Amino acid sequence: MSTTDNTAAVAADGVTGSDELVDVVVIGGGPIGMFTAFYSAMRNLSVQLIDSLPQLGGQVAALYPEKPIHDIAGFVSGTGAELIANLQKQIDSFGDRIDVHVNEEVQGLNRLDDGTFVLTTKTRSVHTRSVIVAIGSGAFAPRPLAIDYDRDGLDGSKVFYFVKRLADFEGKNVVVAGGGDAAIDWALELEKIAAHVTLVHRRDNFRALESSVAQLRESSVEILTPYKFVDVVDEGEGAGLRIDLAQVKGDDQPSLHVDALLVNYGFTSDNHLLRDWGLPVKRGDLQVNEFLETEIPGIYGVGDAVNYPGKVKLISAGFGEVPRAVNHLSEELYPDRKQPLHS
């Protein structure tokens, strides 16, 4: 990671500006943004990588550091933290070309008459020839249980919406709520260290990789389907939870006595920043063409922030979008440069 010491002027509002013109600013420091910065540096472009969080890695680093990552070629049985560490090593290898700024939120994006752009944060402005947006799904919050329970008293102590340390559940009796990839992945990981794991889902079918579902059915994880949550009650200090369930389209109403509940219903997201910046947005997603370029020349998007026919919102798919965007951008900025012929 490099830090650029530019000769700068400070405006009356405290925003620092620089006369330096960089080739590309990458907005978003999740896995896709990190790879975008690295690949841009490989194409000999000068890069600034900006992220609003205090560290690189996005949701993967903040919420899923110990979750296994399955769908990235050549990355076998690795965790989210390991993936981010490897991406950081790639960035560090081009420290002379990649200028990283964390804890900064881009508040303004303006196109100048010459086709370049000025991005502003609370403290500075950046002059760039192009922009690649890689902010994922934007601001996110976990989908809560659809019942009333003591969220203030239980969330973070006995009810959890993500796992930062798998070891916190060692030897415990845990219920996992959900039927998607994350729920099944966590159930299988918890099986290795927990005393007992129960997976509760309101449908008989799961929305997850077939191989993961098959592994789940062969595991010791107790599967309760189709059931819905009726109540979650704190059984007191030093005790656990009572979880009341009701069978969907049935009469069974079991109660479970467990130490912890892990809820995996996905996240709600809001990419209002795209609209704030005046970018072409449809149903919350940035609209791009086959080169991942928006209708504004010089502004591109990759990863979960974008949509196009056939789009798949996976990390592996986002990685594949990066070379398309960066190589097209590089040719636009430097027409004499040839496309790379191999990796």
TrEMBL record:
Task: Write the record's keywords in alphabetical order, separated by commas.
Answer: FAD, Flavoprotein, NADP, Oxidoreductase
Instruction: Note the InterPro entries from the entry.
Output: FAD/NAD-bd_sf, FAD/NAD-binding_dom, Fd--NADP_Rdtase_type_2, Ferredoxin-NADP_redctase_2
Coiled-coil residues are none
Cofactor entry: FAD
Q: What is this protein called?
A: Ferredoxin--NADP reductase
Family under the similarity heading: Belongs to the ferredoxin--NADP reductase type 2 family.
Q: Give the matching Pfam families.
A: Pyr_redox_2
Q: Which GO terms describe its molecular function?
A: ferredoxin-NADP+ reductase activity; flavin adenine dinucleotide binding; NADP binding; thioredoxin-disulfide reductase (NADPH) activity
Give me the residues that bind FAD, please: 51, 59, 64, 106, 140, 304
